[in-house]
Specification:
29% of the residues lie in helices and 24% in strands. It is of the alpha/beta class. It folds into 2 domains: 267 residues, 3-Layer(aba) Sandwich (Rossmann fold); 96 residues, 2-Layer Sandwich (GMP Synthetase, Chain A, domain 3). A 9-stranded mixed beta sheet has the order 7-6-8-9-10-11-12-19-18, sandwiched between helices. A 4-stranded antiparallel beta sheet has the order 13-14-17-16. Strands 2-1-3 form a 3-stranded parallel beta sheet, with helices on one face. Helix 4 links the parallel strand 6 and strand 7. It is globular.
């Protein structure tokens, strides 16, 4: 009689990686926490990824287990308690400018580093046992997952009403009396529009329970920021600036009013500076360092020895004033942020460029009143434009998750490039009647 085969869900060891392609839920957070306190590294991924995208990502990350449905979460929930210390960070995936998805990896943390990381989040955001965290964004994103985890480990509770809907969120606020919330500007815009609609059923709920409303992920227009400050309790609203790789600054709205345009000062333990070219660098404590999994070259390009110790950049441009307040002058030229989701044109270009009817392609973003930016594709085709556009939309649907599918296609005789072949995305944006170089947000 053969020996029973080990169950991969219960045979996990510290340092193993588990890919999660499951819709967010309270059980999802339970599973993530259960893994982290054991030193097992969850890889939260968008469940809407196409099979093409999944294969590309998972091939490099080599997970010990891939979970694709809610039932698969159950064996992972082995228990955790408020006050437990996660011994790892989730490995979120960033595409990067090359279009090749890479995991941001911190490995299994020494106990002292794990405790320092937990204390840093707790001290900044004040997580406590009576907190109720309202989740608006998908939990595979780093910020909402981080806020939910911090709340639960402090003894609070999490409310996850499901895919974002202004009416559903308003009802959850009225019924659950949340104290904290992370959002992106697109959420605020839709909530305010809903509350402004005529009719009693759209009335704004009582917001007095909130002590913390933090936003990030995309630029927040001034009028939207002022409305945020107006309707939520005094002193409760914050902006922060960060990335998949790390967190840089935090800023109360009152500081923003005193210094319009700032995204705040460096978080405790960090140092922010801009080099002679305006590239922003962040020196971080040892417990907050990372590498790109399986990509030593990419890791080396991101890090260097700075005046305050090892520092890294994600390619953002800006300045730091004499009081340490950071201002963003622009993001990486190729980064598009749509509804708070980072989209890297190189990844989309690789997919569209593989279509047999495409001779050349460039992907870029233009401002959009609802989503911050809208993804566009400029295409040089070998067949009729109308026929090719229909094919490309189907091609993208089969190979790219929804945020990465271009909303608009333009057909050109040639894509504007430099003499060395680099796409002139700024020229493409300018041809849309948009002034390039505008601030791209946090």
């Amino acid at each position: 009689m053969s020996a029973p085969r080990p169950d991969p869900a219960t045979d996990l060891r510290a340092g193993d990686r588990v890919a999660l392609l499951v819709d967010g839920s309270l059980r999802y957070v339970d599973a993530v926490l259960s893994l982290l306190v054991r030193g097992v590294i969850p890889i939260p991924l968008d469940p809407r990824l196409t099979s093409y995208e999944r294969e590309r990502i998972l091939a490099d990350l080599d997970p010990a287990l891939v979970v694709t449905d809610a039932a698969g979460l159950e064996p992972l929930v082995t228990g955790w308690q408020p006050g437990d210390v996660p011994l790892a960070r989730p490995m979120h995936v960033t595409s990067g400018t090359t279009g090749t998805p890479k995991g941001v990896d911190s490995g299994v943390l020494p106990r002292s580093h794990a405790e320092a990381l937990l204390a840093e989040e707790r001290d900044l955001w004040g997580f406590r046992a009576d907190d109720v965290n309202l989740v608006l964004s998908p939990l595979y994103h780093s910020a909402p997952l981080r806020f939910a985890i911090g709340t639960l480990l402090a003894g609070g509770r999490v409310v996850a009403p499901g895919p974002f809907d202004p009416a559903r969120v308003s009802a959850a606020i009225a019924a659950e009396r949340p104290t904290t919330m992370f959002c992106v500007p697109a959420h605020l815009q839709r909530l305010f529009a809903h509350w402004d609609e005529p009719g009693d059923r759209h009335d704004r709920p009582d917001l007095s329970s909130f002590r913390l409303v933090a936003h990030a992920g995309a630029p927040c227009p001034d009028h939207l920021k002022e409305r945020l400050v107006e309707v939520f309790p005094d002193g409760s609203t914050w902006e922060f600036y960060g990335s998949t790789e790390g967190q840089f600054t935090a800023c109360r709205s009152e500081e923003w009013r005193a210094r319009p345009g700032t995204v705040g000062r460096a978080r405790p333990g960090r140092r922010m500076r801009a080099d002679a070219d305006g590239l922003l660098w962040c020196a971080v404590p040892e417990h907050a360092r990372f590498s790109y999994f399986g990509a030593p070259g990419k890791t080396a390009a991101a890090w260097r020895d700075g005046p305050d110790g090892p520092e890294f950049t994600v390619g953002d441009l800006g300045r730091v004033d004499e009081d340490g307040y950071v201002y963003l002058d622009g993001r990486r030229e190729d980064l598009v942020i749509s509804g708070g989701v980072n989209v890297y044109p190189a990844e989309v270009e690789n997919v569209l460029g593989a279509h047999p009817g495409v001779a050349d392609v460039a992907v870029y973003g233009v401002p959009d009143p609802a989503w911050g930016q809208r993804l566009c594709a400029a295409v040089v085709g070998t067949v009729a434009a109308q026929e090719l556009e229909e094919d490309l939309r189907a091609w993208a649907t089969a190979r790219l998750s929804p945020p990465k599918r271009p909303k608009d296609y333009r057909f050109l005789a040639e894509v504007p490039r430099t003499l060395t072949g680099k796409v002139l995305r700024r020229d493409l944006v300018a041809e849309e009647g948009v002034t390039p170089g505008a601030r791209r947000g946090s």
